[in-house]
Write a structure and sequence with these properties.
By secondary structure, the protein is α/β, with parallel strands linked by helices. The chain is built from 16 helices and 30 strands. The strands form 6 sheets. Strands 15, 16, 17, 18, 19, 22, 23, 28, 29 and 30 form a 10-stranded mixed β-sheet that branches. An 8-stranded mixed β-sheet has the order 2-1-3-4-14-13-12-9. Helix 10 packs across helix 12 and helix 14 crosses helix 16. It binds ligand 1PR. The site of the ligand NC(=O)c1ncn([C@@H]2O[C@H](COP(=O)(O)O)[C@@H](O)[C@H]2O)c1NCNC[C@@H](O)[C@H](O)[C@H](O)COP(=O)(O)O has 36 residues, from strand 15, strand 16, strand 22, helix 10 and strand 30.
Length: about 550
């Protein structure tokens, strides 16, 4: 019946639910949005994607009466799928800015990962789950990786064993999914876990559906090293060319112009097409960096938002967008907060946003005043969307030193001495696409933005950008040892060995490349096969 293709979605307006809508539509289902508690009680099947923080979510559920309706819907064992926070809210309470009371349907308290176990928090990436009880929607997962992005988790113990259907190891064994009858919930994001994730959604939406194409089994055992394409990750550095078309470009040490008479912007293809291709080729994440965002105004840059909306319709792995995120006053004196800019990016399909120049200014201010004003774009966006949704992109330039004492900033001994035989270097941060050097080092910046609420660091290197000679191992080691949030190594990838080198010599959690993929010099799969051969866990 017509009703069979409809799923009711409880979207209380925080964060990016667009990815899930895209996945549900991709699977051929229509969405009915919950407006009133009655819509919950009348639902044939209900999906509750929780994004953001526990307390504000419980606030909305309590104020709107949705919480009560949810409890009776679940107690009637009606078809339900909770995702991420949508799982956590089912528990008694959470320590997140708490304790905060939850819906109390499942015994247990949601707590923060214990970073003293040596794990980086947030838990961001592709990890393996151990199925502990038959759970129909997980039947196709086999030993494949699924995508997690969270700082809090619920723990299995005697009183909730009857609910737990799988666990995942990250420092400790936390609850990855629950199931009782028709009630399901998962801590990972099926809408961002590629074909494996789509199979979980398909099995919930249509329990009788027999998977046409059996999924490959996989050998997942733990958190995989991530390999990002910068589309800009497969990053694409995107900008408008002189004709005003939005193109994927790629710089040599950030210079994106062809060395021809026309001196035009290097055009490496259409962002949406490339993103879709990288997804099919197995990219773990895709990012768009609007490299002239510092000049233009993102909300005025409709082509960029269009690209994001279209790309997210066919890319079911995490999408990060950056460029120009800051408070802004337009020519008509209309003031826009960076939160409004980020909100539009999330509404358009971004799972994470990336802040470049504005994070440098926030860190300088913080180091000067030692006060967290809470006003910076970084602090505002991570408070509302959670730090796991905020990446800080660092654009440093290497400066060689005879003696570390020559500068006040943290320096490191370099593997390859400088042109004058200098044994040390510090890494000066820049803003506006490498155009302006700032009085702060990458080390000081990384530590400051971690304290201000960044969930991840995208560590580029202007010197290595587009050179194909490998990542700056000294820089990646310096920064990945300095912070306890995940660090993405970026700039300089030229061969598969460069990926195993950065993962074996540093604590980078992910590695990003652009040029070699745009120019189709190295297939994504060959990077993954090489890492597997080297015994490095990757998502296949
Ligand atoms: N002229 C440029 O290239 C350039 N100018 C600005 N950006 C990026 O755009 C964003 C601007 O953000 P804001 O407006 O400062 O918040 C920043 O994240 C900054 O890194 C630029 N690109 C940064 N791109 C660097 C990498 O992300 C690149 O993709 C790797 O170096 C991998 O390249 P490779 O594998 O080919 O070596």
């Amino acid at each position: 019946t017509a009703d069979d293709s409809v799923v009711t979605l409880l979207d209380y307006g925080a964060g990016n639910v667009r990815s899930l809508r895209n996945a549900i539509r991709f699977l051929g289902f229509n969405i009915k949005d919950v407006q009133t508690p009655e819509d919950i009680l009348n639902a044939k099947r209900l999906i509750f994607p929780g994004v953001g923080a526990f307390a504000p979510a419980m606030d909305v559920l309590n104020k709107t009466g949705m919480g009560e309706a949810l409890c009776s819907y679940i107690e009637q064992d009606r078809p339900f799928l909770g995702i991420c926070l949508g799982l956590q809210l089912l528990f008694e309470s959470s320590e997140e800015n708490g304790p905060v009371k939850g819906l109390g349907l499942i015994p247990g308290i949601v707590g923060r990962f214990d970073s003293s176990n040596g794990v980086r928090v947030p838990h961001i990436g592709w990890n393996a789950i151990q199925i502990t009880r038959e759970s129909q929607i997980l039947d196709d997962i086999g030993r494949r990786h699924v995508y997690f992005v969270h700082s809090y988790r619920a723990m299995p113990f005697d009183d909730n064993t009857e609910w737990v259907s799988s666990t995942c190891n990250y420092g400790d064994n936390f609850i990855a999914s629950i199931r009782r009858g028709n009630v399901h919930a998962v801590q990972f994001h099926p809408e961002k876990s590629g074909d494996v994730g789509l199979s979980v959604l398909r099995r919930f939406l249509n329990p009788k559906s027999e998977m046409t194409k059996k999924l490959a089994q996989g050998k997942a055992s733990k958190l995989a090293k991530r390999h990002l394409e910068v589309q800009g990750h497969c990053l694409s550095d995107v900008r408008t060319n002189d004709k005003g078309d939005l193109v994927v470009t790629k710089g040599d040490q950030y210079d994106v112009r062809e060395h021809t008479k026309e001196n035009e912007v290097r055009n490496l293809g259409k962002p949406v097409d490339l993103a879709g291709q990288y997804y099919k080729d197995g990219a773990d994440e895709v990012s768009f960096l609007n490299i002239t965002g510092f000049r233009d105004f993102p909300l005025g840059d409709l082509p960029m938002l269009q690209v994001l909306r279209h790309a997210s319709e066919n890319v079911f792995v995490p999408l990060t967008v950056g460029g120009g995120i800051r408070d802004f006053t337009d020519a008509n004196g209309r003031y826009y907060s960076s939160l409004e800019v980020a909100a539009e990016y999330f509404r358009s399909g971004a799972d994470k946003i990336s802040i470049g120049s504005d994070a440098v200014y926030a860190a300088e201010e913080y180091l000067k005043t030692k006060v967290k004003s809470g006003k910076s774009s970084l602090e505002q966006i991570s408070r509302v969307y959670g730090n796991q949704a905020v990446v800080v992109s660092i654009d440093p330039r290497r400066v060689y030193l005879k003696d570390p004492k020559d500068v006040e900033f943290k320096s490191t001994r370099v593997t390859n001495p400088g042109p004058n035989g200098d044994q040390y270097a510090w890494y000066q941060c820049t803003v506006n696409g490498g155009r302006e050097g700032r009085p702060i080092g990458a080390y000081e910046l990384a530590k400051a933005v971690e304290e201000l609420g960044a969930g991840e660091i995208l560590l580029n290197c202007i010197d290595c950008d587009g050179q194909g000679k490998g990542f700056d191992i000294d820089l990646v080691k310096l920064i990945s040892d300095a912070v306890s949030i995940p660090v993405i190594a970026s700039s300089g990838a030229g061969a598969v060995e460069h990926f195993s080198e950065v993962f074996s010599k540093t604590n980078a959690s992910a590695a990003l490349a652009a040029g070699i993929f745009h120019r189709k010099e190295v297939p994504i799969q060959s990077v993954k096969e090489h890492l597997l051969q080297e015994g490095i866990e990757v998502r296949m």
